[in-house]
Amino acid sequence: MHSAYTYPIGTPGQKWGDEERQTWRAQTSIKREYQQLVIPEIEALRARFDVVQYGALSYDPARYPLWCVKTRAWQDDKPTVLITGGVHGYETSGVHGALQFLATEASRFESEVNLVVAPCVSPWGYETINRWNPNALDPNRSFYPGSPAEESAALMALVAELPDILLHIDLHETTDTDESEFRPALAARDGIAYVAGSIPDGFYTVGDSDKPQLALQTAIIEAVRKVTHIAPSDENGQLIGSDAVQEGVILYPMKKLGLCGGVTDCTYTSTTEVYPDSPQVTAQECNDAQVAAVVGALEYVLAQ
C-alpha cells in the first residue's frame, strides 16, 4: 500500500536534482571512523596476507583508501573466491564479518583456493551509516559499465584483473532503517510514491535468478542456522516482497539490477542478508553468521 509518509527533502512526485542531493548530503554526518575501526583490522592481517590498495574515493582519498586482502600463497591453478563486504556501508556485519573470516577461518582454505576479500567497499557509507554514497547513489545498484558510483567502479576494476572466479559471496544486512529511512529516501529521490514493506526477522540469502545454485543456498542456510535463526516467509510466501523459492532464499537478476552479486561471471554466487535489529541476536552473532555463511559456501563448493 502507498504510505502517507512524505520525505523531508524534495517535492513529492518530482525527481531530485542537484539541489536536493546536496541538501541530502548536508544532513549526513560522521558517526564512526573507518580509519579507527576498519583499517587497523586490515593492517593486522598483513603478517599473513597480502594487503593491496585497489583505489581511493575522490571525496577524500587519504581518508578513504580502498583495500583488498589476498591469500599470500597465490597459485594460478587454484580456483579464486571473491568475498565482498560493506557495499552498503551501514551494514556493519558485512564489513566486520569479512574481517573476522580472514582472522579466524581463512587459513583453513588457503591451500585449496585463492581468496580475495574487499571488506569495506563503501567506507564513506560506513562512516555515515548510509546506504548511498555522497552523491545519493546506491553502489549496490551501480555495478555496470560506466558506473557513476566510484565504489562500484573501483571494485569492477579490481575484478577485471582477477582470474576467473569460481565463487562470490557478498555480505549484507537488512535493517529496520531500510523501511524507516532508506526506502522512503529512494522513493523521494526518484519522484515515486513510497510503498511500505516489511523486514524479515532472521537470516536469508539472495541467489542469482540466472544461476540460482539452490544447493549452495541450502548449504549456506544450514551453516548459518547453527548461529542464528532463519527468516520465515510472510503470509504470502515471500521475503522482502520476493517469492521465497525455498526456506530463507529469494532470487534477483543480479546483472540486470546492477548488484554486486553480478560483478563476476562466477559459477556460484550468493548474497547474505543478516538482520541485526532482531531482539534474538547480538552484533557478534551477526558477524558470526556472516563467517558461517562464507565457510558453508566454501565447504559446499570445494566438495563438488
Please characterize this protein's 3D structure.
This protein has 304 residues and is α/β, with parallel strands linked by helices. It is built from 9 helices and 10 strands. It has one domain (18-303): Aminopeptidase (3-Layer(aba) Sandwich), CATH 3.40.630.10. 31% of the residues lie in helices and 18% in strands. The strands form 2 sheets. It has an 8-stranded mixed sheet. Strands 7-8 form a two-stranded antiparallel ribbon. The longest helix is centred in the C-terminal third of the chain and has 21 residues, at 283-303. One of its GO terms (biological process) is proteolysis.
Set out the fold topology:
Blueprint: H1 18-26, H2 34-37, H3 39-43, E1 49-56, E2 65-71, E3 80-85, H4 92-104, E4 114-118, H5 123-128, H6 150-160, E5 165-173, H7 177-190, E6 204-208, H8 214-225, E7 238-239, E8 242-243, E9 249-252, E10 268-274, H9 283-303
Parallel strand pairs: 3-4, 3-5, 5-10, 6-9
Antiparallel strand pairs: 1-2, 2-4, 6-10, 7-8
Helix pairs in contact: 4-9, 8-9
